[in-house]
Amino acid sequence: MPTTQRFATGDGIEIAYHEYDPGRPEAGLPPVVLHHGFAADTVTNWVSPGVVDTLLDAGRSVISVDARGHGASDKPHDPDHYGEGRMSADLLELLDDLALERIDLVGYSMGAIVSAIAASRDGRIRRLVIGGVGGRIARIGDGATTGLDRSAIAEALLADDPDTVTDPSARAFRRFADSTGGDRLALSTPAWPILRTWPVVRRLLFLHHGSPVMTR
């Protein structure tokens, strides 16, 4: 069973995180920190698919974060409290709070963006693994789009009747949020099309093989 705790961020939001002990840890390896995707949480992305158990079986200690607006963390409805940049700051503040000097970081979908931004800003991240994002992520800085109509997703999340949602992608996000019991008003806030941090991610993804992030 995990140990679940919360810490307060610099802007006063409490973030929940879950620590898993492997019992027989592999000596010399840092903890693996997991960051889930949009409208998901630790259970949905990491526990239910068996990711946490696989890491524990390999002797790795695991820390999984519930992002603001998700899971057991606070769910403010003020847009100023959201954004991938703010969520990456939450990750780094967690490392400070736990006095962690080195971690391996894994992010999926929204969590991949958050993790990539964090890795571009902090040398404590030894290894970075991201998934659930296509190659389009590397072209945002050249004027490409994310491929998602975030305003349509937000409108779908706020719709009184999900059957009235016509956009297929937005309808899928609405169904997923309903299935996880998410706070749809909180989730609709970061879903609006404001992504000012993509160029940072782009720079990180194009780091060459000999870079510190790749070899630490």
What can you see in these coordinates?
The protein is an alpha/beta fold. It is built from 9 helices and 6 strands; from the N terminus they run βββααβαβαβααααα. It has a 6-stranded mixed β-sheet, sandwiched between helices. A hairpin with a 5-residue loop joins strand 1 (3-8) and strand 2 (14-20). Helix 5 crosses helix 6 (168-180). The two termini are 31 Å apart.
Element pattern in H and E = EEEHHEHEHEHHHHH
Assembly classification: single chain
Query: What is the percentage of strand-forming residues?
Result: 15-25%
Number of helices: 9
Mean pLDDT score? 85
Helix content: 25-40%
**What Rg do the Cα atoms give?**
17 Å
Task: Find the structural class using helix and strand composition.
Answer: alpha/beta
Low-confidence stretches: 140-145, 192-200, 205-216
Spatial strand arrangement across the major sheet:
1-2-4-3-5-6
Q: Give the overall shape, derived from the CA principal axes.
A: globular
